[in-house]
Amino acid sequence: MRSKDQETDRRAPAQLVAVQGRGVLPAKKHVATADDLGLTRGDGVFDATRVVTASDGVSRVDNLGLHLDRLDRSLQKLAGERIDRDAWQQLVDEAVVNWRHPGESVLKMMHTRGPESASGLPLMVLTITPMSAAALAARDGLRITTLCRGTASDAHRDAPWLLGGVKTLSYATNMAAGREAARRGVDDVLFTSTDGYCLEGPTSSLVVARDGVLLTTPHEGTGILDSITQAVIFAKAAKDGWRTEYKLMKPKELAKADGVWLVSSGRGAAPVLELDGKQLAQDAKLTRKVNKYAGFR
Ligand code: PLP
What we know:
The chain has helices spanning 4-11, 37-41, 64-79, 85-98, 133-138, 172-183, 228-239, 251-254, 284-294, and strands at residues 16-19, 23-25, 44-53, 59-61, 103-112, 123-130, 142-148, 188-192, 205-210, 213-216, 243-246, 259-264, 268-275, 278-279. By secondary structure, it is α+β, with helices and mostly antiparallel strands. Helix 7 packs across helix 9. The radius of gyration is 20 Å and the shape is globular. Mean pLDDT is 94; it is low at 1-12. The structure holds pyridoxal-5'-phosphate.
């Protein structure tokens, strides 16, 4: 007879775990030592992207090269080190061949600085997990709140040690912001600076359409992540005749926009329905177009 746990496992979405040097492992196997710096200090970097698996079990990974490039930039900024790109590529290839669940999932690649007791031995671990219901629901639209991140829009200009724009494993404040949104009865957050400008979401970037121009927050000085989804949207939109611009915007400017989206590699472009209780313009055709630019249909 199957135990209750086994029944739960059978129904629960599967997760694949793979570790550099060990390959694909059973999902519940321990992968880190108790003194791993990623665990004890959040000292490490990660990146994440979407995997799309067809009904025959064959998968494609969205923009893997760009995500490995950013993982490498993150590690250089965090520790002055480079990722082992070939090892990552091999680990991803092995994992993806073993992942045969049709549909959308998220590939997460984590590179920690390894055990405190054995410096120079990074832990490289990845997971593939089915796309969450929340990510899928976000595509229908988000009600969001602004939350001040507590720094000025130029706070990161001469302070690289603050690790602005680095995808570190220290995402506790981002997660706490998401919980604050839930407490306020909304779906997500748009961080703002102390001087009142829009920055980014806790796990997404801001894209705004206004009068034929696509806009987003500048990276320089603001400390926001250089979103791959936003970059891909801008590149495709520019080829399609849009002007694109990096501009600091106040939340009240978003009320005059033709469309506002929180974009990320998992969700694509999620339209913002409501910001701080005020409805924003909706244009389903434009949302479809922006998602098409992002590689989402
Ligand atoms: N900003 C932050 C803080 C993020 O964590 C993410 C993604 O997780 C993004 C923006 C969007 O980046 P991308 O489009 O590369 O997924």
